Amino acid sequence: MKRRNTQRGMTMIEMIIYMCISGIVIGMVILYFGDMLTSTDVQASQKNILTLRIQIAEAYQAEPDYSALSTENAVNLSLIPSSMLKGSDVHNAFGGDVTIEPNSDPRYFDISIDGVPGDACSKMALLSRGEWEAVTVNGTDVSQLASETVTSTVASACTEDTNTIVYTAK
């Protein structure tokens, strides 16, 4: 009587297919969580910038202009959201510096955020569009653009790995 070969287990091809499928699934999970973390950082930054704007406007409402405004004064007056403070330094959710200063026209003030990653730049640049006096991305004014051209202009302005966005408010 002949014995049948009853070995069990995976063949080499089955193992390779399994490894490829597992790698693809793991890669998709990593991409999803990476996007989710960036989205969380964008939301936190947007919330902090809007809160900062309101805090500054309220603190300086009795002043004739923003000429005395600085990052240091904003820290000393406790205008900075606590999640942005690292000691006496002010940082955004992406780890970049935040600078607050009067605009060249002291009736306005600028909030400058550095270190904005390319994948978050467009979302940050379009933050509350129309509510800022001006928004610039790496020196390109994107605030007064028509709706049909704003997305492409912002995308072309957000070309760096890390970008600088300046919001101007009154």
Strand order of the largest sheet: 3-4-7-5-6
Q: What level of helicity do the residues show?
A: 40-55%
- What is the 3D shape? elongated
DSSP E strands, number: 7
In whole angstroms, the N-to-C terminal distance is 95 Å
Sheet having the most strands = 5 strands, antiparallel
Structural class determined from secondary elements: alpha+beta
Low-confidence stretches are none
The number of helical runs is 4
Structure description:
Helix 1 (12-59) runs parallel beside helix 3 (118-125). With 170 residues, the protein is of the alpha+beta class. Strands 3-4-7-5-6 form a five-stranded antiparallel beta sheet. The protein has a two-stranded antiparallel sheet with strand order 1-2. The protein is 43% helix and 19% strand. A hairpin with a 2-residue loop joins strand 5 and strand 6 (140-141).
What tags apply to this protein structure?
170 residues; elongated; alpha+beta; 43% helix; 19% strand
Task: Please give a quick description of this structure.
By secondary structure, the chain is α+β, with helices and mostly antiparallel strands.
Helices and strands in order, then pairings?
Blueprint: H1 12-59, H2 71-76, E1 85-86, E2 89-90, E3 98-102, E4 109-117, H3 118-125, E5 134-137, E6 140-141, H4 147-157, E7 162-169
Antiparallel strand pairs: 1-2, 3-4, 4-7, 5-6, 5-7
Helix pairs in contact: 1-3
